[in-house]
Amino acid sequence: MFLEIIILQKMRKQAFLFFVLCTSAYAQCVDPIYKDQMELWNASGVKDGIPTDHSVYSMITPVLGSTIHSSVNGDTTLQAELKAATLVGGRQKVVLHNGIYPIDHFDIPSNVLLMGENIDSTIIKSTFRNSRTSIDEAGIVEIQDGTVFAGIENLTIDYTVLDCHISDYEGKDLHTPNTYQSSYYTNTPCDRTDLEVTGIEIRPNASNCWVRNVKINNIGSTPMKISGDNNTVDNCYFKGAYMKGTNGQGYFEINGDGNRIIGNTFHFLRHVVLQKYNGAVKPNGNVLFNNLLYGCDYNIHDDEDGDNLFEQNEVRQASWSAWGPYHTGHACCHQVPDISNWLVNNKMYNKQNISEFSDTDVVYKSTGKFKGRGEEGLEDSGKKMSACGYFFTDETPRSQMGFVQPLMDR
Length: 410
What we know:
The protein has two helices and 31 strands. The chain is mainly beta and 410 residues long. A hairpin with a 5-residue loop joins strand 1 and strand 2 (15-22).
């Protein structure tokens, strides 16, 4: 460990000299003007990074081959394997070979990684049905309250309902001329009331868990909900939801603190949203970096605790959306966003494909004002850009990162 003096040139041509602590080949840069916030954001996600030292506990192959809708005695066997793995001690990995696994739902316990052989060829095909009986939908994959260091990687969760269609995007390009239709945002698609299903749910007090290189296709309601703290979602793809009406449907939802959401694609959802959970948990210190929001908005929805960072993302809203690229909850029944949230160096396009809130190195903040369906918009906070060139500076050299592209073929 050593101290190295680095001179960084700001975009405004102002030279800035400060000390940076180097702990690896890539120096984690912290601008002393924003020390508290940058240290908060750099500490987001799984502590010390996603672990890679798992032992293989078991490897599972579909009984009848990779193209047959069958699995090893169904989900009961998979759940038993996951529970047995956690009892061994240490970090264990259960591997699913390529194939189609018709599994309704299951939990991942502490210190266990469920890993598919290939994201496109290892498919969990769920026909789970649920009608809401509480504030929560039921999840296909649950990481329960208090779970630590549980992970899921390299597979697809497919929830496609054969006799029902997602009408808002099927057969449409992002900018196909269209107008808002209430049928696109309904909680009873195809007159069904049994699709209240979440793809992956990380419950409150679950921490240091992760979802990496996972696809969720056409979920019932919510692709993912994160109510725990310091979890990581990395390089995933979330496409479509049958239910996108009121009361939290069709959201990628962040309720907890210090979660790291990086390098993902969100495709035709209602919102990517920050909001309180069950009236108590209020999100703070979350990082959304280098994601693509394609046909949905970034929405600071209801009563969060501020210092959430939205940086270097691309947002492209659909022509038929009722919202802009950035929005809030409706003024009638939501709390105004905290003015300490940070939005910087994003590429944001409204439903007319016109750029908004996208000026280089301008740090935007909430106006703290409501009007009609939500907030009036964003305004320049007056803060200077970090001398590091980024506010989130952990882990990966920025020259190696580009915007995620929409995976239209997936």
